[in-house]
Amino acid sequence: MTRRFMKAALVATALLAAAPAGAGGRFGVTITAENREERRAISRFLKFYAAGSAAAQVIQNGSGNGAAIAQSGKGNRTVVSQQGNDHSATVYQRGRGNRLGVFQFGQGTDVNVTQSGKRGATLVFTGGW
To answer: Which pTM was predicted?
Structure first.
């Protein structure tokens, strides 16, 4: 993994851990691969996290969560993980060989992502309190 990718992942993790419980609000961090090595790291992370090879997977723990995934093209993979309550995610991928992960924590976040082209890789982290 490149240093830039590692720094971005560490910042996202730190922000998630440091969010004050009673303040009320939202934040988000998006990491987009800029080279083959970063794309490979994102792809492996998504495969490991979802523990499978499904083209689209939604993992929800909590209540009031909703997710929609639409994909066209060949070889795309999407994982949406919602932990907490009242999250909403809409993901649309078109093209070929794209990788996309949306991770929502806490409560009340809303993510709408479109990824097109070929061999793109993006991770989106959001948190709400």
So the answer is: 0.82
Tens-place pLDDT, residues 62-113: 999 999 999 999 999 999 999 999 999 999 999 999 999 999 999 999 999 9
Q: What letter represents residue 41's amino acid?
A: A
Query: How far is Cα 115 from Cα 13, in angstroms, rounded to an integer?
Result: 23
Q: What is the pLDDT of residues 43-53, one digit of tens each?
A: 999 988 887 77
Residues near 41 by Cβ (< 8 Å), separated by ≥ 6? Answer: 1, 5, 33
How is the chain split into domains, by residue range? 28-128
Give the pairing of strands 121-128 and 26-32.
Answer: antiparallel
Q: How far apart are CA 128 and CA 55, in angstroms?
A: 27
